[in-house]
Amino acid sequence: MRFSGKTAIVTGSARGIGAAIARRLASEGAAVLGVDQAEARDTEHDASGGSIEHVQADIADPSTAASLARRFADRPLDILVNNAGIGNSRPIDQTSDADWSRYMEINLGAAFRMCRDLLPVLTPHHSAIVNMTSVFGLVGFPNSLPYSVSKAGLAQMTRQLAADLGPKGIRVNAVAPGVIETDLTRERIQNNAWYQKIMCDATALRRNGTPEDVAGATAFLCSDDAAFVTGHVLVVDGGWLGARFLPSVDGE
Ligand code: NAI
User: Are 11 and 54 in contact (CB under 8 A)?
Assistant: First the structure.
């Protein structure tokens, strides 16, 4: 019950990682506003007293963040999770100007506006922002240019905002997942042999991650358990980045 009485916004909450984060925060007592471009569902109530109210909105629309802020005029916002994002980008020679702008706008620009426009309603001295970046924002990965650059920008925005907002007592951290089985990755996990070899088979813990794996790490960063943690990018990748398992090394 770490979030009893707390308010939270989670973007991209209709499915995948965002849905798991919203459920996890609500299960520990938070009143969550789930924001997604998908059609809104009825409010969900958790036995803990927490809830998830679903709102349909496009985070790339420049007016979305400001209109969400108006919902918090009477009660402050404690937790902001900028999770929504798009993936599956193409190599540089197949990336148009419009593609580039789309990745930057949804994965980076929208998170910037959410932070800026919700700042006035964030609880002073005791609130937390978590941005969903990626291991692809921390290392180069073949044929993933606009996605990786947008996620690297989000990791740096996290460090920068930690510096800017630390004096106000607002903590800003990021989670960098490795391969997590969701609608975003399922097709590649099941049908792309190269992706299976370089991502799934190279994960030290020998399994793909689940949305709940990411939700647990995100909840930690949102909670008082991380009260002295800010400017950190928490890698949740089963060891892909730090201790990758190479099948050829031990003959398996
Ligand atoms: P997903 O594609 O299953 O879900 C993304 C959700 O965000 C969807 O419900 C979608 O409707 C929503 N969304 C997308 N654009 C939106 C917009 N403009 N406005 C409002 N809602 C929007 O993706 P998944 O796998 O759950 O990923 C969530 C986040 O985690 C993304 O930022 C992704 O880049 C990141 N991530 C995912 C990894 C994975 O292996 N699945 C690995 C590393 C990072």
Answer: no
